[in-house]
What we know:
Largest sheet: 8 strands, mixed
Order of helices and strands: HEEHEEEHEEEEEEHHEHEHEEH
Number of helices: 8
Mean pLDDT: 92
CATH superfamily of the largest domain: Fructose-1,6-Bisphosphatase, subunit A, domain 1
Distance between the termini: 43 Å
CATH architecture of the largest domain: 2-Layer Sandwich
Number of domains: 2
Number of strands: 15
Amino acid sequence: MEYHNGPMGIHAEHLEAAKAAALEAGELLRGDFHRLGEVQFKGEINLVTASDHASQDLIFGRLSSRFPDHDFLAEEGLKKLGGAAFRWVFDPLDGTTNFAHRFPVFCVSIALEGEGRLVCGVVHNPMSGETFWAESGEGAWLNGRRIRVSTTGDLVRSLVATGFSYDIRETQANIAEHDRILLRAQGVRRCGSAALDLGCVACGRFDGFWELKLNPWDTAAGALLVAEAGGRVSDFEGGPVDIYRPEVVASNGRIHPFLLEALRTR
């Protein structure tokens, strides 16, 4: 079994900075978990907590002080976009609804784009103590242990995951897709954090994942994790994934055609 905790490739400095920021933000969230403060609603079922903002401020402060020339994009209204060669894309608290209900499935997700491609990413679950990370060309890792996608080849033997958008009551988005795949797969899970779902695909816990109406901070780090773990990440047509498009299909590669077929069926 392969282990690695130290510097890796040409983006080792960026990766170590992202890991440090994610771990520190995770400690903040873990401390807030049992003393939840004010919850505000951005929509009927879309909420935000003071912890989202505190985590975002912490991550931005750490990374911007170390890399002042980089751009930043994050969920809670952070847009520092000046055309820099590098852009940090992060979600300070992915799984806010879980967090607000004290369901311990949420994470910090941080990724770095360099010249239009994902170069490193970190997903940290502060409640389980698990930290996923990946660097382009250097593989994917979980707490220092190299991870790889599953080898399941049949959708009927696959455990897959998905999620639903906050406007589901108006759009009905992903309900039909969910029902079709539910009837073809061994099981479908809805955990409430796309970043953690993608991490679970990368380490073989899930065989696949799909979702509509996502944002770049939901998928940036997780998409790199899956790719570096030997999996496949695409849009619903099977083309290259684009984190700025609101849909993603990720899998171990073997069941990818079956997922795409089920998603295309009308």
